[in-house]
Hints:
Blueprint: E1 4-9, H1 13-24, E2 29-35, H2 38-45, E3 52-55, H3 64-74, E4 79-84, H4 89-97, E5 102-105, H5 110-128, H6 135-141, H7 162-174, H8 181-188, H9 192-204, E6 208-213, E7 221-226
Parallel strand pairs: 1-2, 1-3, 3-4, 4-5
Antiparallel strand pairs: 6-7
Amino acid sequence: xxxxxxxxxxxxxxxxxxxxxxxxxxxxxxxxxxxxxxxxxxxxxxxxxxxxxxxxxxxxxxxxxxxxxxxxxxxxxxxxxxxxxxxxxxxxxxxxxxxxxxxxxxxxxxxxxxxxxxxxxxxxxxxxxxxxxxxxxxxxxxxxxxxxxxxxxxxxxxxxxxxxxxxxxxxxxxxxxxxxxxxxxxxxxxxxxxxxxxxxxxxxxxxxxxxxxxxxxxxxxxxxxxxx
Length: 228
């Protein structure tokens, strides 16, 4: 089987060297190109489509999370692992909503990268097989959310389902500045009224709380925050 081809997008030459040295220790992966800027990355992606991209956030000419849309346009089959020092909520949120495969914080260890790489390899090989999928294999591709509704939450009322509720909880947990019902609905794919229904239910269960934010014009905005 051919090696899995990797593109490293990292502006720090020393860190890029670390990526490459680590990947040399993992059998079956080959770094076929390195880019120090978003522009260089785009040039490479116009020539080939790597299986995997290791992407930094803070590039000289663009944020890595803002480069993802262009990556998906030029190389839609490439998977992305973000390796970055960025911990800002809006950056993590963008990465999550853009279906980044993994998010590794710098400084990181070889074992951390190896675990992420091996998970990617297994998913990659699964998707290459032309066979029916078992529930176990499907669950590996779409693992259950790490944040779930607590066991002592009462029976959900009519119109509230656990799957959507977990999406709401996961999204709200990434929003340091809270979220309006409209913003939540837009980002998880439900109507504003549906989003508000779920948010208000969380408030009644004391899993979320609200604050009124006053802008320069118009009515105050009701924002929801996950309870700590």
